[in-house]
Amino acid sequence: MSTNHDSSPLTGLGESEELDYAVSTCARCGYCKQVCTTHPYGNGFEAFSPRAKVHFLNELRNGRAELTPEWVDRLYQCTTCERCQEVCQTDIPLVELWEAARAETVKRGLGPMPVHLKFKEFADKNGNAYGEPNEERGRWMLPEHRPAEGAELLVFGGCTGSFKMPAMLRTGVSILQRQGIPFAYAGPGELCCGSPILRTGQIDSAKRLIAGNLDTFHRLGVKQVVTPCGGCSKTLKHDYPRWAKELGKPWEVEVLHFSEIYVRLLREGRLKPKKAINRKITYHDPCHLGRSQGIFDEPREILAAIPGVELVEMENVRADSRCCGAGGGVRANYAAMANDIAEKRIKEAIATGADTLATMCPFCQSSFAPLLQKMGNPLQLVGVEELLLQSMEE
């Protein structure tokens, strides 16, 4: 399904062959209902299931249903975790459909949720979804971090990594420097990748952010862009090439998540963890890193390379991993639901007997951290790269 949102699958509600295909091929099997992260919070009503939403969109398109506030609310109660898409028997790109539906609610003046509108207002004014002064985007950097002019690799911090949870970003850059890998950094020239704006259907604002970043990439002449954030890397990998074509701008870069950089260095023998890190660790697969990008093996390969680490897997891992509850704008607007989803994932981690919960997305980390503290810190929360850097130290 196309993600050209100016001609989204719901535009015109009756003129799209893509929407015809998406809604007519639904087998109504219910597998999506069984794995949906947010369906359990609909008081048992079928209307909150993915298959019901597909049916509703078909009815809406054919003029047999109305886009009521209740249905708008249901469309926004989705973390875009892709579990429904993973089990879909007819391969419907469901997350793209949900995002297109949200864009339609915005087009009709019925969406987004008020708190999501704040993301847009902040990004329009400040260039980031948190409303922070964008000239302070580089405040995460340590004194020893030295960006290089003309480097082919650009570090893209992302809003959460830059302003809220900088540990993974700092550690990644420290590892690059230890390996003698030059990196560029745009500083205030970096804008929000657009993910929280895109996922909530606010296309015009997202388009401006994407265009600004595309211009920056081209101006700096970079060949690779690396980020610690699963949401940023998903957006840069999957949405930017399509939007570059739509906007008539060049797309000349390879996008990498930091985990992919670390694994390359390990396989090349350039990165050699030596110091034992004696911990029993369970790993959380971020939705936008795992299901969205297929990055399941890399974090585990990194952990396996660190002496002393014992990996114990949770019941639901890899493509079956449970969501942290933060994605798709859910944590911002449905905090109680998001916290309950995250708490269930934490309890699954505790059940492994691990002493440490590791992940590779600052957004997941920001979801788990306050709940772990509230629960008395039954697990230590770390980024995989933090363990890697510790193991590199003499």
UniProtKB/TrEMBL annotation:
Query: Can the keyword GTP-binding be found in this entry's annotation?
Result: no
Which segments cross the bilayer? none
Q: Which keywords fit this entry according to its UniProt record?
A: 4Fe-4S, Iron, Iron-sulfur, Metal-binding, Oxidoreductase
Q: Which domain of life is it from?
A: Bacteria
Q: Where is the Cysteine-rich domain?
A: 155-237, 281-368
Question: Which chain positions lie within coiled-coil regions?
Answer: none
4Fe-4S ferredoxin-type domain span: 23-92
Q: Name one Pfam family in it.
A: CCG
Q: Tell me if Thylakoid is a UniProt keyword of this record.
A: no
Q: Which InterPro entries match?
A: 4Fe4S_Fe-S-bd, Cys_rich_dom, HdrC_iron-sulfur_subunit
Stated name of the protein: (Fe-S)-binding protein
Q: Report the source organism.
A: Geomonas subterranea
